[in-house]
## 1
Amino acid sequence: MENRYDVAIIGNGPAGLSAALTLKNRNKNVIVFANSKTSSKVEKAQEIHNYLGFPEISGTDLAQRFLEHAKVSQVHIVEVGISVVYHMGEYYGLRTRNNEMYEAKTVILAFGVQFGKLYPGEEAFLGRGVSYCATCDAMLYRGKKVVVIGNSPQDEAEANFLADLAEQVYYIPNYKKVESLSEKIQVIYDTPVEITGDAVVDTLVCKNTSIQTDGIFVLRESVAPAQLVPGLAVEDGYVVVNRKMETNLPGCFACGDLTGAPFQYMKAAGEGNVAAISAVAYLAAQ
Amino acid sequence: MENRYDVAIIGNGPAGLSAALTLKNRNKNVIVFANSKTSSKVEKAQEIHNYLGFPEISGTDLAQRFLEHAKVSQVHIVEVGISVVYHMGEYYGLRTRNNEMYEAKTVILAFGVQFGKLYPGEEAFLGRGVSYCATCDAMLYRGKKVVVIGNSPQDEAEANFLADLAEQVYYIPNYKKVESLSEKIQVIYDTPVEITGDAVVDTLVCKNTSIQTDGIFVLRESVAPAQLVPGLAVEDGYVVVNRKMETNLPGCFACGDLTGAPFQYMKAAGEGNVAAISAVAYLAAQ
């Protein structure tokens, strides 16, 4: 298998890139999975005053610096989201949103806290009609009706994948322009309001209409940590870590905003560094 | 009292300066105590590859960048060592090595781990003839003989202070050239080997000679954390902190190398950031 690494890092913000640099320095075989070219959160910051070494730098410039540093250090960044991480004992299996599989001996979670607000009913029906991963759960909806809520053109591939199996796919884009959706899919321009049903999902209530459906796929840039990594310990929505950035799963580390406040670039970069060193120690002990 | 601050930071390496920047951003009244102009440890580093944002920078350049950033942010740095920190309940009292007193509502310890190797017998006789602070313990040696082991010209002031009280002061410089020592003091160019005695210290054994003495002052750039802050919890020589960088003493935080491995600039700067945010929260709750 070619897609096999020492360390898989999910997220390319300050935490993920800092971890990647340190791991490259230690000659580890590292891959970084990124939802987008730069950390959108760093980019959005107008001016950053307390990232030591850069007095008054804009978020855009700082993000650029981070990526340049990663480039100089030959960090391998792949622009694809991860839909699920399975703990397989000796290693971790990572499934990308375009259905490729990767293996890594250790995983560093560093994808921040932009999970988006949940729809009413979303959590209650999770696993009972609500899913975050088309490539994982498509088979359950063979010959059925599903709704896909997409948040970026990247999500259209998943909807297309579903369209080959499901009887009918409705697609609700939470963005301006649909780019490459299959003709079999019916696009609905509306705003989801609530997910309802009885034992299982039966309706997606929108602002202007209600859609009868067997399943609802909510595709966001990031899914919540416990959804992404089954078995991961989370408290108040944040990944539980100790001072070594170890999670409850051996070989799985976390750093940056998803470990909780303060939500600061400096803290994230520092934690990424610690997570990397801990991963190195874990690999050495294997 | 004029020397009164919201936060006193001891140390001007990445941890201390990172904390200072964040506190300035939050409009806190901050003072940084520094043994020397820059963190000697950062300066000594040939090349640093994993401080995110600076691909391949020398230790000297990075230290310079850090200090410039502190300057731009108008961080108040005082070049004097701290000999002891007293927890006074509502606030902390800090005594400098030239015997000035400062008060701060919170203290951030960030002075690294360059405590120097202890002399055989040093720890055993601590408080029984061995002292790290002339201005604290001079009165105990009125009319007696003491030896001062100095590690930099800065230490000569403490020896001079002792010379006004003690009957005889011997000074052993662990550096090249004595600069401004009182004429009352006898300089001995020799290498300390061991501290001996019975119930209390009686002899400093050196390579070429042995000095009969009532007290031995060992003056180093940094003293061990538990010596500097009486009551501070330390484990294996490192300050015990939680994820918020809180120590066992309320209002006292620690960050950087003195909290333990990994000894990395990025980790230190990240921890400084967290310590600062925790200090802000502590002040707000007062």
## 2
Amino acid sequence: MDAVSRIERTLSTSLDRVDSTAGPPRLAAAMRHAVFPRGARIRPRLCLAVAAACGEDDPAAADGAAAAIEFMHCASLVHDDLPCFDNADTRRGRLSVHRAFGEPLAVLAGDALIVLSFQTIAWGAARSPSRLMPLVLHLAAATGMPFGIAAGQAWESEPTIDMGQYQRAKTGALFAAATVLGAAAAGSEAATWRELGERLGEAYQVADDIADVLSGKDELGKPTGQDAAHGRPNAALVLGVDGAMRHLTQLAEAAVAAIPDCPGAAALKSLTLSEARRLLPKDMALRAA
Amino acid sequence: MDAVSRIERTLSTSLDRVDSTAGPPRLAAAMRHAVFPRGARIRPRLCLAVAAACGEDDPAAADGAAAAIEFMHCASLVHDDLPCFDNADTRRGRLSVHRAFGEPLAVLAGDALIVLSFQTIAWGAARSPSRLMPLVLHLAAATGMPFGIAAGQAWESEPTIDMGQYQRAKTGALFAAATVLGAAAAGSEAATWRELGERLGEAYQVADDIADVLSGKDELGKPTGQDAAHGRPNAALVLGVDGAMRHLTQLAEAAVAAIPDCPGAAALKSLTLSEARRLLPKDMALRAA
């Protein structure tokens, strides 16, 4: 079964397990709305790729870790879209959760998805219970205080913002968790896998910055976008689009160099480079020419 | 060390572990504001009492479970106080988290406390890692879908409300978790401990109903309160204050009868009865005379 099918199956199975007819049906619907239809699933695919490279001996543990990361990512999007943060009306081309179900159920859907994330990682580890401790602790570290995604989002509410901590926590933490949890799910030493995730998280941020700048180009005729409009830091504004593309290539090469010795290192290196190319906007080659 | 001191120490230690100078300081302050100064700590005290009755062989595991329950309770209060739910200005005699720190940090403080709850239960189980699986799964079940506190709160957003499920989930779930997790932390069979927690959760709800009715008596001269004003179900409105008191006594007796055979059963029975009396408003004897 390919990685995306495994991820979708695990997400569905976990949601089904907590969707009892005796529970509140609109909360269940709001949670599904947050998770399906799927986005790129880039973090859980990375998690499964690392588990495979480590010689995955318990696919259910890796599936649980991958789905847990995606549930956490979806929870963060639901809360980030709330009126008190981005006040986003749409997400992935349709209504955001708070616009479709109201603000109370959006808050609760995020909460329940955070809980489901821990539940899913525990269910996945049923045959490898000794791996649960590192799995829970790495998942929590990527999510909470002081360096997880909640901490990353909180920097926007501080009087002075530490930009490095902000980006490492808001974007990098779940990428690092993807590689670290993939290794932990396979029973491998997890710490050596952090750098790969961190470099890919940085590459993802730079690709996002490039896309933001190019998205503004069409309408305004100059290299700007939402980040310029809101005074947010953007690598493509600082380095230019060509400079940002070179930086992204360097980050992808650094990611490849950071892959530890493992049974599937060669395949993972090849996959890492092709994924880095996928990060670019689809018409990047044309526009950057 | 007495139970309350153990609970306060574990809550403080956990918060200290995630409060790095490199993290966002206002989120850390919002989390502490939600947890201190302490409320009655009734759920973690119940958890420690059950662990002791089971012949607690790993106090750190019990401490972790008790603190995890209290973090989850505090997280739910922070989110329930948000403008989109109760819009409460105060909590425990001072500003609610969203009034003191703003809505974004209140959402994130709740999220980060949910994460810290799982982290704390994992830290506590360091010397008994085989107990982590049931601890995580029972904690998640008490918190998420379909029967946990998030599900309970979500019933308020459903077009038709299942009152039984609503109260069992919103109030009962964390009481049942307190007894179940106390037993699981001590390495005992957890399922037999659920009924004690459920009966005490019902008793707590009835005591709350009595307090609500009596709170209205002073000002209006008739047995009413916030529940009557908002059309919420209230046992003391249905049964009268004297009838509700008799019901509370029956629930306390049912709780005592539900205590499984264990090394500390006698002491726990005595504690359960004295705790049930503490549930009543301080001037209950006088007013009900």
